[in-house]
């Protein structure tokens, strides 16, 4: 090998060593850069996980509060429904009482009508009795008239056919 070739070979070796150093340096820089990015990404991931844990905790707390509020509202609604059922039952009782009283009022009105009819009959009978009494008194003074015939005729004036047969 000649001196020139040795020198060229040494230059090539130096270039290769320099390139190797540059490559190692570049690789170290790239690796360092990647490690920094990885560390940054880990920090971001840790912050995101921490934020998610916070959101999860707050969501669970909010869910519990909402569940408690919902249970309270459902309890209030159930109590209101029970009151409405009681009022409906009370209203039904009132309606039954009104119907019962209405039936009693109708019965009493019918009884009053029946009593008025009976009262009219009694008044007619009283008037007839007064007439008969007057006739009897006048007959007691006049003995030529038969009182039983006159009374039968007086009683038969306003009475129906069945009464005529019963009294004669």
Structure commentary:
With 168 residues, the chain is mostly helical. Helix content is 93%, strand content 0%. It contains 3 helices and no strands. It has helices at 3-141, 147-156, 161-167. Helix 1 packs antiparallel against helix 2 (147-156). It is rod-shaped and about 200 Å long. The relative contact order is 0.03. The model is unreliable at 160-168 (pLDDT under 50).
Structural category = mainly alpha
Taken from the alpha-carbon principal axes, the silhouette is: rod-shaped
The counted number of beta strands is 0
Radius of gyration: 63 Å
The number of distinct helices, counting runs of at least 4 residues, comes to: 3
The H-and-E topology, N to C, reads as HHH
Helix content: over 70%
Our count of domains comes out at: 1
What summary fits the major beta sheet?
none
Poorly predicted tracts of residues = 160-168
């Amino acid at each position: 090998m000649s001196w020139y070739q040795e020198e060229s070979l040494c230059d090539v070796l130096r270039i290769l060593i320099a390139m190797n150093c540059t490559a190692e340096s570049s690789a170290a820089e790239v690796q360092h850069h990647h490690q920094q990015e990885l560390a940054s990404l880990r920090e971001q991931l840790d912050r995101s996980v921490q934020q998610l844990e916070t959101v999860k905790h707050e969501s669970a707390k909010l869910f519990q509060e909402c569940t408690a509020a919902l249970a309270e509202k459902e309890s209030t609604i159930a109590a209101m429904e029970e009151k409405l059922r009681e009022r409906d039952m009370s209203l039904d009782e009132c309606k039954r009482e009104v119907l019962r009283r209405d039936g009693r009022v109708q019965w009493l009105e019918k009884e009053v009508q029946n009593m008025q009819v009976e009262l009219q009959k009694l008044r007619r009978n009283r008037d007839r009795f007064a007439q008969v009494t007057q006739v009897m008194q006048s007959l007691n003074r006049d003995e030529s008239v038969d009182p039983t015939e006159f009374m039968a005729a007086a009683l038969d004036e306003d009475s129906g056919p069945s009464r005529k047969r019963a009294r004669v």
